[in-house]
Structure formats: structure tokens, C-alpha cells
Amino acid sequence: MTTKAAIRAEGERLLAAFVQAGAVPVETDLLQPAETLLDLYGEDIRARAYVTDDPVRGEMMLRPDFTVPVVQAHMAHGADPARYAYLGEVFRKQDRHSGRANEYLQAGYEVFDRTAPEAADAEVFALFRDLLAGLNLRPVTGDIGILMAAVRGLDTSDRRKATLLRHVWRPARFKALLDRFAGRAPVPGGRLALLERLKAGSPLQLIDEAGAFVGIRSADEIAQRAEALVADAETPPIKATEAALLYDLLSLEAPAAHALTHLRGITPMLPAIAPAVDRFATRLDALAAKGVDVATLAFEASHGRTALEYYDGFVFSFLADGLPPVASGGRYDALTAVLGAGAFIPAVGGVIRPELVARLKGGAA
Amino acid sequence: MIRIGVPSKGRLMQDTFDWFGARGLTMRRTGNDREYAGAVDGIEGVGLVLLSAGEIPRELAAGRIHLGVTGSDLMGETLGMNAPEVQELARLGFGHADLILAVPNVWIDVETVDDLDAAAAGFRAVHGHRLRIATKYHRLTRDFLQARGGCGLPTGRQPGRDGRHRQERHRRGDCGYHLLRRDAAGKPPAHPFRRADPFQRGGSVGVPHGRSVRR
Q1: Rounded CA gap, B47 and B28, in Å?
Q2: pTM for the complete prediction?
Q3: pLDDT tens digits, residue range B101-155?
Q4: Could you tell me which of A285, A236, A218, A227 has the C-alpha nearest to residue A256?
Q5: Interface test with chain A among B79, B82, B86, B108, by most A beta carbons within 10 Å
């Protein structure tokens, strides 16, 4: 068994390496406000955070991750550009018998730099690769930005695009919605009955007939959505050719250089992804300049779709069989805007789990 | 000594006593009403432990009791489905209850979990906070929604402890996932809420029904 001391020592080694790479070590509070921040993590972490109640400060949670508080601190009073490193525990509820830890150390590195985002992506990835060398890990990369650009470029209603974007992180629901919007799946029986009912009268009249009004969701909100549902039923399906390109994109798994060729090939038919594909190409150049072999580096367009919901560009993981990801990270430009009250800075970062590194080293010895 | 845990109060306790009584074991409370003490007659070496039905799953898993009578909803909620420490021995056939996802009747635009998700997204945009589901069944609710592709809803960060509390939450704009006890005629009680997907179409509810004994 890997001892806490060995894990802590591994964490200190990683932290020192991050500082050596130019990062300023930072600390964050263990107790974080839950009301505002928990929303940013996505469903998985939201369900697994330890939330408690403080009569003065409201709902508080045990830090489930460092990135959000680090971004918050940076947006409040950070230098520009900046690099940060941290080492500390994060807390997540786990299912019984999952064998996963409820509290564990994370060592992380975050880069806030607006000059060359793709170079920053490559910097973080290459640094992690170097620190994890010899552990026989399998790196996997992805790019949420290409998926989001493809959805935004669809020839359909804004409402449908917004719905798909909201569910990028829930692959099953995303697929079901896309199937329906593209006319591949029938409209569910419940929805047909609902549409029939809605056509039977004006929404406000139907609400009135439904009995006692309860809740703060107002009659106007209900009526607006009812009208939108009827309008959506009239929306023509997403064209089969366009939908086929999106399905193709979702399932794209190839070595990165080959994936780029493929993406270049479909860009004329899905022009909205062109800027994102250009950024992908620039990133591959930057990775190659750091000595990463992009001809073999695994790229999966759907990678990161079940991870943290704040990632919106490059994503990566370093994986070992039978373990949670040993390291993972990604770009989260939009998060800086959300926490920046108008300010914005491109940012990328990632975390390594010292416990898993120590365990792999122990096994190798 | 084999320790058997049974619900300490009301209808469930009486139904349990009757069930065992029909099989030749007499269970009874001892002492006055405020003491959770009991005894079993008709068998040697069995001790009766009276507990809240909600505590029984955890006591079983911890090994402090060896047999227990409780609801399969409480088993699923406390230990998760198919917990390895416990095993269902018999369905007792009383205390039936359905878990339902209920939305206000006036939400004429909500029929399925898809609709609920869209309504929740709109609600959040307008009100600046997420729609909340009032429930004391966090795990079952989350599992239910996740099995339907995820809904982006937080579940019961402040669980509804009783009907009044739930009603209060509903007034604040939330929906509920809660236990609906049927009355003697098998009819659910009237209230200003109705079932959302998939209950109206009679599909599998994906959550346990009824009550059962587990070891």
C-alpha cells in the first residue's frame, strides 16, 4: 500500500516541477461557496460534492476541484499572463464499493496567457508528459471546441442548437436529441400527446383550466415554452447530409495528424468548424515543436464529453488500465469570462493525481 | 442470538407483527410506548430490535442486526441497488408505495423528462438559479434521471422531510420526486401535482416498489 507520506512526497515533487516551469504556487480555501460555483462543474461533480450549510455564508462545499477557485482568484487580482501551481486535497462523494477515494491530492498547473493559446495547450500537455514519463501511460486528446463549432454551424433553429450545446456533456441525451432533430428517431408518444393538447387551446387558457397555480415558474414562462414547442414541431429536420457529418465527427477517433486530414476534408461541407480546425492544426504544430509525435498521438473527438463541463477547447488525459485518469486537463476560456465579470483571458490547465503516480511507481519498483 | 430489526411504529410495525404472527412467531413490544424494546415468542435465540424503517438498511449493512424488515425504496436509497452485503429474502406484500416524479398540473408544457430538462433550463435563465427537486430520495432520484440521459437538475439539496416541507418547496417553483402512498382503495391522494414521465404511460419506473425483507 502506498503510504500517505509517499503520496505527499510525490505531490511535492510535482509541485516543485510546476514551480520550476514558471508557476506561482497558490493556495485556495477548503470551504468554497456552493451556490455560485457548484453550477460550473457539471452534473457529475455537482452530485458528488460535499455540501454543508453555514448560517452566515450560506451553502458551502468542500473543495471539489482547484480550477474554479484558482480562476476566481486570478480574475479578481491576477497578473497577466500568469502561471499557477497548487497541491492539495479535493473531496468527492463516491459510490459504495467503487473503490474510489473520497479525498485525494491533486497537483495542478494552470496557464493564463492570451498571446498564443495553442502554444499554451502544448506547454501543459508536454509538461505533463515529461513528469509522467516512464509510467507507461496512454495519452488521449480531444477538442470540445470543434464539436461546439459544428453544433453552432448547423442549419436549424437557435433553440435546437442551444439544446444540443447544453447537452454536449451528456452523450446519450445529445445523441437522442440529434436523432430526433434529424428525423432519425420518431417523436416520442408523450410529446405527440402534449402537442395535441397544446393545440386544443391557447396556452394561458390551458393553464387556467389546469387548476390551482403553484410554483414561481410563471404562467408566461409556461406559455412561452408551450408556444415554442408548437413552433419546434414545425421546424424542418436537420438535413441528412449535415447530420451525417455530425455523427461522423462525434465518432472520430484517429491519430491526431490523421484526424486533422479528415477534419480538413469535411470542413468544406461544415464551414462553421473551419476556425476550430485551424486552431487544432496550430496546436498540432505546437505539440510537434515540443517533441510530441502527432502521427501517433490519440485523438478522440468525443474525449472529455463526460468530464468537467467548463472545458470548451483542447482536452487531454493520461490513462492507465484499471485506474481513474492519472492526469487530465483542458482549456476553459469561457469559464474565465463567467468568473471575470466582463473580463476574459484564455486559460488552460490540468491536474495530476500523486497517489496514482506513487502507486504506479511502487508497482514498477 | 439472531437480531431482527423491524419498524418501530404504526402501520408498518403492526403489518410486520401480523406477517410473522401468521407464520407462528409472535412479536410484541415490551415496556411502555416510548421504549423501543420488543420480544419474539415461539422461537429460541431471536432478539427483536425496534428501529425506524430508515435506519434498518444501514444497521443491516453494518452487521448490527442480522435480519430486517424495511422498504425496498429505503434499501435502494441508503445502500444503492444490489448492495453486496444484503439479500432480499421475501416480499411481504404490504406498505406498497410508488416513487413518482411530480410536476405542477399547471405546467402544461411538461410531459417527459426531456420537457422537464427544457423547462429547467428556461427556469434557470429567467430566475438565475436552478430548479430544485424536493425529495428525501437523493440517490434514487439521481439514478432515475441519469438513466434517462441526465437532466441537469440538482436533487434535493435540502431534502423534504415531510409533506408540509415539500409543499413549501413546490410553492417556490420546484418539482418533487417523492413517495406517493396509495390509500386503502389503491388510489393516490389528490394534490395539485401530477406524475411526469414515464408514469403516465405505465412504463417501468426504475425504482423499487413495495416493501420487502432482506438479510
Answers
A1: 11
A2: 0.79
A3: 777 888 888 877 788 888 888 888 888 777 777 777 777 877 777 776 655 444 4
A4: A285
A5: B108
